[in-house]
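Reply to dn_fold:

You asked what the input looked like. This is it:
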Amino acid sequence: MECREKLVRDRIGEEMEASGRPVRRAEPGEVEELLLDKIVEEALELKGSRDPWEAADLLEALLSWARLRGMSLEDILRLASEKRARRGGFTRYYVALLCREGFQS
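and this is what came back:
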């Protein structure tokens, strides 16, 4: 049997712990990497399902990462606004063709 570890929501971890299923608390030095893995996981789930609940999971993971870095939702929104003012948003749906020497599909 192949096993892997992944970050789960707090209540899921509490339920697993209460029922005797294997679960542990992350070490401080691994939390950021686990959160970034969770962000990627949730983004892929959103892409596959198009389910707004997955967008909520993605946002929750992103907010947890931001809090770990000492930022709030307001901080992230301010940064997004600053970047949008400088570089624009994603409202006009431009698609760039990016090529590099030796690129193969």
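Residues 10-87 form one domain.
Hope that clears it up.
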